[in-house]
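Incident log, structure service

09:12 report received: a user says their structure output differs between two submissions of the same chain.
09:20 pulled the input from the user's history:
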Amino acid sequence: MQLSFEQLKEITVGAVYMENIDGEMSFYKYFPNMIPMWAEQNPSFEERAKTTTGVRFDFHTNSKHIKLEIERPAKFEIYIDGIFRYTMKEIDSLSVDINTPLEEPIEDARVTVYFPSHKIGRVKSLELDDGAYVRPHTFDKKILFVGDSITQGWESGFDSLSFANKVSRYFNAESVIQGVGGACFSPEFLEPLPIDFDWVVVGYGTNDFDRRKEFDEFNYYMCEYMSKLSRLYGDKKVFVISPIWRRLSKPESRVRFGEYRRAIADEAQKHGFIHVDGSLLVPPVNDLYTDGLHPNGVGFSLFAENLIEIMKEFV
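09:34 re-ran on a clean worker, output below:
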């Protein structure tokens, strides 16, 4: 039984816009009108804004099998009842049995299919057994994540193990993850969305440090962003993460980086947001990073665990 586009829309999480063109289904974390704006700021941002970061199918079924066919090989990851079971890399079709790790049949399984975070994942079909039911998963919370490559999950190893996805799973949250590698505080990309989020998690600043060398320029855009964030989500729980540790060899660079971090913290608190000290999320240990900037898989696990401990206080 092949699910229709309408059925797939019902079980899709993390996409603000979906389209079906000649049987090829596309899912987007930004509305189409935002993509040219990203391209105008930096040509490389266009592809990153189009990627299916955080998009997933999330549903319950009594089907014993599923078959996923995608438009071209991309890294899809499949969880069964919350357990990471399958990954797709160099293939464009995958048929799997739905069972437990002990091969015991499941009468009612939760299936979560994570789309690629750094590629554009397009789906041709999702098939279940004939006569099987499909029911969208019910969530307890709605979270919006906005930020740069760390929010997008660069270097996490597996996309479903990014901090944003791990936090979403822990809180059983429907989430939209608008992470774009290389992005800075840019208020024009903070768009109203037709979702009543409970929490908003913001993670910018490390690219501002690289690209906006003059503190006054950085501070202007950062403050404008915080003001718009307050207008859109001032009645929500807003967590602003100051940049995590990064390898800086020169003492003067470390001092300046600290100034950027303190400015973000001060402005967040000025608007009544919850400041999360990024330096406490991932220890300053080179082995927890791939390049002195992006956490590796273990680093992202620590990031998520420590952030969850902070966010649990506000449930």
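09:41 both user submissions now match this output. Likely a transient worker issue. Closing.
09:42 reviewer note: The mean pLDDT is 94. Residues 184 and 207 are 6 Å apart (CA to CA).
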